[in-house]
Fold:
Amino acid sequence: MSDAPTPSAANAGTIPLLRRLFAEHGRQHLRSYIGAGCLMAVGAVATAISAWLLKPVLNGMVEAEGFKTLRLLAWAVAGLFILRGMATYGYLVVLSRTGNKIVAGVQTRLFDHLLRQDMRFFQDRHSTDFMARLSLAANGVRDTLQVLITSMGRDVLTLAGLIAVMIVQDPLMALMALSVMPVGGYFLSRLIRKVRKSARRSFDGSARIMQTMQETLQGVRIVKSFNLEDIMRQRMAVSVCEVEKSVNSMAAGMAVSSPIADALAGIAIGAVIFYGSWRVTIAGADPGSFFSFVAALLLAYEPAKRLARLNLDIQNGLTGARLIYEVLDLPAAETPQPHLPPLQVSSGRIVFDKVRFAYRPGEYVLDGLDLVAEPNATTALVGPSGGGKSTIIAMIQRFYAPESGTVSIDGQTLDGVGLASLRDRIAFVAQDVFLFRGTIRDNIALGRPGATDAEIQEAARMANAHEFITGFATGYETSVGEQGAQLSGGQRQRIAIARAFLKNAPIILLDEPTAALDSESEREVQKALDHLREGRTTLVVAHRLQTIVNSDRICVIENGRAVEAGTHHELLARRGTYHAFFAAQFGENAAPLRIASGAGPR
Ligand SMILES: Nc1ncnc2c1ncn2[C@@H]1O[C@H](COP(=O)(O)OP(=O)(O)O)[C@@H](O)[C@H]1O
Ligand SMILES: [Mg+2]
Structure:
């Protein structure tokens, strides 16, 4: 795709790419391929023998005692064709099984590789790009090998057998007929570049079709509400048209190979008939050799034609292989690091020390951030949108690494501990809850795979979710719909909190968990959160008054720095940024009112 970087695999030449494909997949299935090759050889020999047998057949006809021999030959020819049919069946089955195994292997590898990429990788790309690669391109790998093996095995062997028959029957005539082959090869090689380009364009277009489709489906509410149908239709039309055009141009390129091959074959066959009939009629050669030769030549035509366009077919499949390798060749950013010790959380004190970080070079989102989240307490991050609060939450989970400065937990710098052990000790609840396909039970259970039903229900109770879940006719087995579409925002949020409860991690990260909720569901979620925070280190990005005021400590984040920190009272009394922020957010009078009503720090 246009927005993905283009590493070397994208431009790799045909031969290196084939060599690599063979090394990675062919060798592994060598036995199957050798088996298929043997079956092809059987078919090729059967074909050659049947052409060769035409000589005794024809010469037998002109002899007196011929009939007996001819009957035998008739049986032999029938037998040879049946044998060829069986061999063909055999190699087709073997080849497609092996091919499908290769596709499965490629898909597994690609997916596995994706899971090892870091956040940056995913944010630079559209999800459908991977779907297209996983489905369309993986087939390309199989097709390339399939075409290659079939052509090399069946067509080369068949052609070799038939050429041998031709040479045996008449070497000079064989030379005449074969001389057209390099001419054909030259013309076809010129088509390759065009086909290659079209194949790539058609893939890109297909990926965009999926993209438009996915966005339209996921954003169907927005599409309808903003009357975006025409724009989406337009987008789809552009991609569909692009694919249609490139597929047409590819087909035209491929089709040109036929007339070229036909014309050249016509010349060769015409020349052979001309010269051959002269030899038989004038020079007195035996007609059997001549007919056997012509039969071999005609039988050779199809495999020769296929071989000539082999390169075209391979280019098609190799486009897929290139797309796969583009992804596979990217270094995996999150490989397991067995040499790093696991994170040991004793109290769970999180410290940011002069952390600088930029998503884009030079644009610092965190600019010398100092921050402490004390154990057994809730630290609230407040401040203007875009100030870097979500980035802080992301850095604690090491979705990104600091450019300078350190993030540490209980004195252990995050880059010095195993990634999995770090994320194991953190429970994260985001504003936009993500639910996976499946039931409510499945979704909570993801907090700790292997948890019992009793534990899951306990977690749901703590999250204040048990009641609404059991209110559904199917209870915990209720399906959540695609991305939780069948639940309300507050319900989704509480399922996410139940998931966090089940994980039972010492560090809780909350990114505006109630921002999208109405005040009724907010209260429900808030109760659940208050419960979840007990005895843990909690860092919460907050906009809601209640969440802020209930925190033990508040940090004001502005332009990537903690500009103020302290309790609600301290900060208000200081009359600085927090006071201004608070007044703007909740009104000049809100502060004294809330404090008077007793909603001070815990
Ligand atoms: N993946 C990203 N790539 C580039 N810029 C980003 C990315 N995520 C956030 N930003 C930028 O970083 C800044 C801080 O974002 P964020 O931490 O989400 O702010 P907050 O949560 O405080 O509203 C914003 O200017 C935002 O545009
Ligand atoms: Mg944010």
Observations:
- The chain is about 65% helix and 10% strand.
- Strands lie at 350-358, 364-373, 377-382, 404-409, 412-413, 426-429, 507-511, 537-541, 553-558, 561-566.
- The chain has three domains: 8-328, 357-425+508-516+529-602, 434-504.
